[in-house]
Amino acid sequence: MQTIQGKVVVITGASSGLGEATARLLAAKDAKVVLGARRADRINALAADIKIQGGEAIAKVTDVTKLAEVQALVDLAVKTYGRLDVIINNAGLMPSSLLSLLKVEDWERMIDVNLKGVLYGIAAALPIMQTQKSGHIINVSSVSGHKVSPGTAVYAATKHAVRVISEGLRQEVTPFNIRTTILSPGAVATELPDSVTDGPTAQGIKEFYKIAIPAESFARMVAFAIEQPEDVNVNEILFRPTAQE
Ligand code: NDP
Predict the structure, then answer these.
(1) Which residues of 27-63 are buried (b: 16+ CB within 10 A; e: fewer)?
(2) What mean pLDDT do residues 90-115 have?
(3) Which domains does the chain have, with CATH numbers?
(4) Would you place residue 2 in the very low, low, confident or very high pLDDT band (cuts 50, 70, 90)?
(5) Cβ–ligand 1 contact at 190 (below 6 Å)
(6) Which of 15, 84, 102, 107 sits 20 to 30 Å CA-CA off 227?
(7) How much distance in Å is there from the Cα of 195 to the middle of ligand 1?
(8) Which residues lie closer than 8 Å to 99 by C-beta, 6 or more apart?
(9) Is any atom of ligand 1 closer than 6 Å to the C-beta of 185?
(10) What is the mean pLDDT of residues 110-134?
(11) How far does the centroid of ligand 1 lie from the alpha carbon of residue 91, in Å?
(12) Which strands, in side-by-side order, build the sheet including 32-37?
């Protein structure tokens, strides 16, 4: 087993849900966590709380749809802590709806955040990790990266793309001692359903999320992947509530 202690971990979408839970768990295991999201109040409060608990954290307002901001977040990690061990490209949203509703703005937001945001995280981290000859890139996909159902086409497309990009990345970075992990959760209780803009879809998702499991479940999966010995690369973790079909 590797220890998480001392590892420098950048987390996008750290202001709530899975990102926040992961920041808390990894900081409790003595990682140095670098928190990015758009809501300054939330990430600053989280960093302060982690420090009160005896952990190490810094926060920087980051919009993952802007490469320069993702780069600045990663650069802050390296400037502050001297290296970059892990990046968790977690920021995402799920304004699902039937394609026939033509919610083109929602399609674009999902592509910009869920897909381009992940690519920008890779672009920011990869040169540093290649130079270090070590690192771990964790990209958040979903059960929706494995299947599609009515109303989830665009969301599922972004999550399928994250898996394909991550696997392509894995094959390319083996000479650089860089690990890649796809994290594919099912229903986990977070603010994600709040991003749905279509009323009937929102109602259906609210019903579905009654079986959702706590965000700490995701954080434990992340910790498991990081804690494996350096020569063990956990390529994907797919998990869901026991009650989820
Ligand atoms: P939340 O809504 O609780 O968190 C989403 C996070 O993404 C927030 O911190 C939000 O921060 C951030 N975010 C959204 N847009 C941007 C942006 N443009 N730039 C930076 N950060 C952004 O949902 P989850 O924690 O559930 O979602 C995290 C990831 O997990 C997503 O990729 C989601 O698709 C995935 N996922 C979640 C599942 C679930 O059931 N919860 C299941 C499968 C996958 P802010 O608004 O402050 O910018």
Answers:
(1) bebebbbbbbbeeeebbbebbeebeeeebbbbbbbbb
(2) 98
(3) 8-239 (3.40.50.720)
(4) confident
(5) yes
(6) 15
(7) 9
(8) 153, 154
(9) yes
(10) 98
(11) 4
(12) 56-61, 32-37, 8-12, 86-89, 135-140, 178-185, 236-239
* ipTM reported for the complex, 2 dp: 0.99
Name residue 183's amino acid. L
191 lines ligand 1 (CB under 6 A): yes
CA quadruple 160, 74, 223, 55: dihedral sign: negative
Atom of ligand 1 nearest to the CA of 183: 44
Please state, in angstroms and rounded to a whole number, the distance separating the CA atoms of residues 10 and 86. 6
Using alpha carbons, list the distances in angstroms from residue 139 to 41, 102, 120, 150, 238: 25, 28, 11, 24, 12
Q: What spacing in Å lies between the alpha carbon of 114 and ligand 1's midpoint?
A: 9
Positions marked active-site: 155
**184, pLDDT greater than 90:** yes
Which pLDDT score, from 0 to 100, does residue 142 have?
98
Mean pLDDT of 59-84: 98
pTM score over 0.80: yes
Q: Report the percentage of the chain scoring pLDDT > 70.
A: 100
Confirm or reject: Cβ of 113 under 6 Å from ligand 1. yes
Query: Cβ-count burial of 222 within 10 angstroms (0-12 exposed, 13-18 middle, 19+ buried)?
Result: buried
Q: What is the pLDDT of residue 133?
A: 98
